[in-house]
Amino acid sequence: MAYNEGDAIPLAAFRDEVLQLHEAITDEESRIGLMRIFNLVCDLVAVHLEETGGDLHAFAAHRQSQIWMFLRAESLLDGVLDRSRLRDVTGREVQAGRMTPDDPLRLYALGDDSAFAEFLEAPSAQPTRH
């Protein structure tokens, strides 16, 4: 069973709600608290997937992309990504232990324009049987 199959785990709806709240609140402490709630729910989903043989790897990748989305949203200035704000936000996350220093978003914030290169590369062609 994939992590997003069925109605048992409405992660997309939960994520959308968290994103709306994330946009509505403006203080850092509330945003951090909201992210703690998001991570708690994701931890519960991960346990469920482990117990049911779900696709934990796909869920982990999706979870990471959602976290990046929240941090990116926090770093917008007039709708444009502000790299110095992103540097501060990712620095806070690294200092708190919620992000590793070599996380691609952190590296990008520090000026590494190739930090996401591995995500942008086209997958290698798989041989097909004829």
What is the structure about, briefly put?
Helices cover 62% and strands 3% of the residues.
Provide a descriptive summary of the structure in words:
With 130 residues, this protein is mostly helical. It folds into two domains: 1-74; 77-120, no CATH class. Helices cover 62% and strands 3% of the residues. It contains six helices and two strands, in the order H-H-H-E-E-H-H-H. The chain has helices at 11-24, 28-52, 56-74, 83-95, 104-109, 117-120, and strands at 76-77, 80-81. It has a two-stranded antiparallel ribbon with strand order 1-2. A hairpin with a 2-residue loop joins strand 1 and strand 2. The radius of gyration is 17 Å and the shape is globular. 15% of the residues are buried. The mean pLDDT is 84.
